[in-house]
Amino acid sequence: MSVVTTERHGDVLVIVSDNPPVNALGAAVRQGLVDGVEEALGDDSVKAVVVRCDGRTFHAGADITEFGKPPQGPSLGEALDKMEAGDKPVVAAIHGTALGGGCEVALACHYRVAVPSAKLGLPEVKLGLIPGAAGTQRLPRVVGAKAALPMVVIGDPISAKKAKEIGLVDEIVGEDTLAEDAIAFARSKIGQPVPRSSEGTANEDGVKDPSIFDEFRQKNGRRLRGFDAPEAGIQAVKAAGEMSYADGVKKERELFMQLMTGTQSAAMRHYFFAERAANKIDDIDPNIDLIPIRKVGVIGAGT
Asked: 10 Å Cβ neighbour count for 298?
């Protein structure tokens, strides 16, 4: 069964991903998104598109098991460029979390609607990286450099309410009516010129006031000191105001590859996987009943 399917709702095509547990953006999902967009653009009876996910969350990031392996299928950047380039409105319908590559998917859509409990963010910095599918270039053009900096450089997710305040989300919709509300929203945009994140102009705040970058460094100096990725994130967001979109994407890719091949990110990714592996004991049935622990003894207090 395909991890990405399409549904027709009159003149709206809905592209649905179902890749448990977190709808990670593996090769099959990326190809499915490309196929869905091509289906919509090739059918004159389709006037608008909705991108949503089944399960507990919107795309919650890249498939990090693919890191360090030869690339397969379309890259996320290629898939998102195709999604953004069309003239039919594409609406991201967000529930759960839109994190990392998932937030980049949302940014490549022309509009974003979200349920009140949704969260959006670019947490790549916590793995010693920056976004690698034009997130550092689209986000500042949508919300401005000042609002983009903490998302890219510190990496904590923001609420749907905060995302709407800064212009990242266009509309908050019903918690239980996301699918229908997103279709209705998409239909309301048919025939209008589509706003592309790559063509946004909110990033001009960093051009008019370049001091915001140094102020951000000073304010967060203690928590950023010693790490390579935060400074790379600042440089990428700054580039979004100083360079064309195409050149900014090249700059992002250059910074991303420097981090990906460096020792800091390798160590942080190892820690990430090790932490999760520690929660799993091989050959134990996941459905086994746990024994209640009432006492714990600690032996030894040496080095």
From this structure: 5
Q: What is the pLDDT of residue 303?
A: 67
Q: Which of 7, 78, 84, 104 is the catalytic position?
A: 104
The four Cα atoms 209, 214, 217, 220 give a dihedral, to 10 degrees, of -60
Q: What CATH number labels 4-264?
A: 3.90.226.10
- Quote the CA–CA distance of 38 and 189 in Å, as a whole number: 19
Instruction: Select which of 124, 165, 175, 215 is catalytic.
Output: 124
For the chain, which ranges sit under pLDDT 70?
303
Taking every pair of Cα atoms in the chain, the longest distance, rounded to a whole number of angstroms, is: 73
Rounded CA-CA distance 122/136 in Å is 9
Report the candidate in 163, 156, 143, 135 with the shortest Cα–Cα distance to residue 236. 135
**50: closest CA among 78, 76, 104, 89?**
89
Apex CA 59: angle with CA 58 and CA 63, to 5°?
A: 155
- Least Cα distance to 220 among 210, 207, 237, 234 occurs for 234
Place of tokens 């994140």: 197
Q: Tokens 């790379």 identify what position? A: 232
Tens of pLDDT, residue by residue over 211-264, are: 999 999 999 999 889 999 999 999 999 999 999 999 999 999 999 999 999 999
Residue 114's pLDDT is what? Answer: 98
DSSP strand pairing (12-17 vs 48-53) = parallel
Domain ranges across the chain? 4-264
- Inter-residue contact 108 to 200 (CB < 8 Å): no
User: How many other β-carbons are positioned within 10 Å of the β-carbon of residue 188?
Assistant: 14
- Determine whether 124 is an active site residue: yes
Structure tokens at 161: 């309410």
